[in-house]
Sequence to fold (300 residues):
Amino acid sequence: MAFGAPLSSTDTMPIVSPGFTGRRQSPDVQLPPGQYLAEDFPVLTAGPTPRVTTDRWQFTINTEAGQRYDWSWQQLIELPAEKITTDIHCVTKWSKLGTRWKGVSLDVLLEDVETAADFALVQSYGGYTTNLPLEDLIDGQAWIAYRYDGDELTPEHGGPARLLVPHLYFWKSAKWVRGIQLLLEDEPGFWESAGYHDYGDPWREQRYQGD
Amino acid sequence: MSDDHVDGNALAGDLREIFAVDLTVATGQCSGCGYRGSVATLRVYQNAPGIVARCPHCEEVVLRLVRGRDRAWLDLRGTVSLEIPLPSP
Fold:
């Protein structure tokens, strides 16, 4: 398991308890380089917040061969879900520890998808995109999350559903996710084509191109 | 070097002149819908990893500006052109 990787509900308790209310940053808290601990949950957005109702919501995986796989909201929430407790790291330098989510693993959604792709371009309602290697979406590393901290995911935080891929900077965890285009070649997304790092590993501080 | 073009260093004077002016009074054209208006009329989203300016008419992205430690990236693919007022000679 990668350093800083999320703990699923089947794992042991995290070393750092999110309920600890003592000193702001105990010596046990290890953050990626250049990050500070946020107590709140900042809302970042590159545009107007899409308001997508669940009756209109649809999630689509398109393969490089043109095959299409769709899920309605009802189909999504009927799939086996996981509870995830994980630290998240935003490229604007805040980190938040022990965030609690519920969602469907991409392993479940990709299970029957036939593909030879190495790359994925994640697409959101509102036009946002972000790219990552397909291997970073599998093996228990990524989810379509639809609950946060015990409640429905609000539109401000990407509801009704967002991608959650916490081992990379949080701009990769696309809000208002609507689909994934599988690709044979890497295609940079919204921020990756405007100076941000193609991969975005917070532990290697891959913020900008060339980092 | 062939004689039909020169390298980018020849742009230095013109670009310095253009980017030294207040670009918010420039008139931009959105590549999404063709809307023309001053840069000052754009809708700017700043609570983000970079600055995103959107067309007030169609909400498409017309400008993105990302600032790194020692660099900036200016993405204008959503802009057809910028018309920049300059002082008369």
About this structure: Chain B touches chain A through 18 residues (CB under 8 Å).
